[in-house]
Amino acid sequence: MRKQICLLFWLFAIAFSNIIKADSTSVYTAASVRFFYANGLLDDSTRFFALDTQLLNFQRFNLSLQNGISTSTLGGLGLASKSLLIKSDSTIGFDYGFHVLDHNLYHTQETRFYDTRSPYTSLTFINGRLKQQSFEATFSENVTPRFNIGFDFRRNGSINYYQRQKVNHTNFRFFGSFLSKNNRYRNFTTFIINKMDAEENGGISNISILENGSLVDPEFEKVKLISADILYRNTVFSFKHRYKLDNKPDSDSISNKKSFKVFQYLTYSENKIEYTDTESPEIRYQDVFLNSSATNDKNFYSMLDHEVGVQFVGFSISGFQQGVFVKQNTQTTNFINTGLRGQINFPVSRFLKVKADAFQIYTGYNSADYSLRGGVELTKNNGDLEAEFGFLSSSKSPAFIYNQFNANTSRWNNDFENVTTQSFFGIFSFKGLLDKIELNVSSIGNVLYFDGVDSVVAPEQFSRSIEVVGITLKKAIRFSKFVIQNQINYQKITNLSILRSPELSGIHSFYFTNKVFNKVLEFNVGFDVSYFTAYQPYSYHAPISQFIASKVDNIESYAQLDLFLVAKLKRAKFMLKFDHFNQGWIKPGYSTTTGYPMPPRTLVIGINWRFFD
Prior knowledge:
This protein is mostly beta strands.
C-alpha cells in the first residue's frame, strides 16, 4: 500500500510540473475538441458533444459496474458479466448468443468521431494493488478541416484476486470521418480488433467463506477449474456513407428536411471463441462427445451486413442483406437473411419530433423476425426539458447457441419459438428538478434461458409471458459545496426464477467539492454506496460461457462502501479510491454470481491526462 501511495504522489508531482509548464504556452483547451456519433449520418445537421471535463464518476472505472453492483459478474476486472437491469432491445438479425464479455469490448455503435482544431490525446492508467491494471489511450486529429482520423486503445492485464482470474485483454479501434465541401457526401469508417483472453476457475470450492470468513488469502482459496481458459477474438470493419442529391444547405429547419439522400451501410465481422481445459472432462461433466482426455472447443462465426436505401422528407426505406457463416468444432452452417426497413424521423415543430422504425426479415435463419418501434421526442428551452415516449413490438429468433450447439461436454439441436416483446417506455428529464427518469413496462414471451448444474446444462424456453416493470431515477442534490448524486433502480418481475434481478438496487455518491490554490486545483472527496436487495443469483457455466438460472440459495441484501478522492489540475485528473472499504463490517464478503466472490478491500489509484496540441 505504501508503494502505491508513493507512486500516486510521484505521478502527481510529474503531472503538476508538466501541466503548469504546458498550459503556460498552450492556446488549445477542451473547447477545441468536439465529437459526434455515426447514428446521425442521415441528419441534415450534426449534433456535436463537448468533452466531459468534470470529475463526476471518474472513480467508477470498472466497465461492468457503471450502474453499481446490479450486475452479475465473476468478481474481477475484465471477467464475464451480465447486467441485471432488463432493457427493451429492438435489434433483430443474427445473434450467436455470446455476450458475457460485451462490457469489455469496443463496439461500432459507440464509436466517437471527432472534430478537432489541434491534435487531441487522452491517456488513462488504473492500478489496484497490482491486481487490477488497465491503460487506455485516445488520439484524434483533423487532417483537413473536414477529414478526421484517430484511434482508441485499451489494455487490461489484471490478475485479480482469486486463483485463475487473470485476464489479458487488448482492444484497438481505428476511426475516420469525412465531409465534402458542399456537404453532400459524408462517410464514417471504423475498424476494430478485440483480443480477449481470460482464465476460468469455475468459482471457489468453499462458498461458506462469504459468511464465515477464510483462514487464507484469496489467492490461496481452492477453485473448481485448474486449467481452463477462454479466448475470444473479434474483428469488425464498418463503412457507412450517404450522398445528398440536392444542394440544399444543412440546417435544423423543417423546410430543409425535404433533402433527398441515398445511403449505404457495410459491416463485416469475424468472431472466434475457444474454450480449452487440459483436465479430463469425465471428471466433472456428465456427457463427453468429442474428446475424453481434454477439451478444445472451437467456435467461429462471421457476418457480412449490407444495407442500401434512400431518404426523403424524413422518411427512409432500405433493403437489408446479412450473410452468416457458423462453425462449431467440425459442424458448419451458413445462410443469408434478407429484409426491408422503413424509418421516420420527422420534426413536427422545433420542439416535437416523431420517430418510427419498422424492420422485417423475410428469408434466412431469422425469417419472420420483425421489430416495430415508434414514439415522440419533446425538447424545450434548449434542453431544459426533454422527454421521449414510445412503444416497441418485436419477435426475434432465438440466439443461435440456444438452437444449435456442438461442443465436447454439451450438445443440442432445438427448434425454439421466437421471443416476443411488447413494451412501452418513457424517458423524462427536467433541468433543476429531475436529471432523468426512465420507465419501461414490458411483456416478454417465450423467454429463453439456461438451466442445470455444474455437470450438465441445457437451454430451456418458458412458454408463458413474463411481465417486467422497470424504473430508473437519477437526481443530483446540491447543498453549497456538498453533493449527493443518486441513481435508484426498481424492477418488478413476475418470474424471478428465470429473469433474476434484485427488486431494488442503486448507487449513490456523497462528496464535498471545492477549488483551492487560486481555483487551479479542483477536488471531490467522499464515498460511493452501491447496494441491492436480496435475490436469487445466476450461476455460471464456463464451458459454454453462459449465466445459468440454476436452483441456488438467495443472496442477502448487501451494500458496498467505496471511499474516494478525485482531483483535477488543469488537464489532468487523479484518483485515490478504497474499493469495498466496508468489507468485514457486516460479513466477510459477498457475490453477485454463485461461487464468485467480489473483490476484497482494495486501494486503487488512477490518472487521466489530456493533451490538446
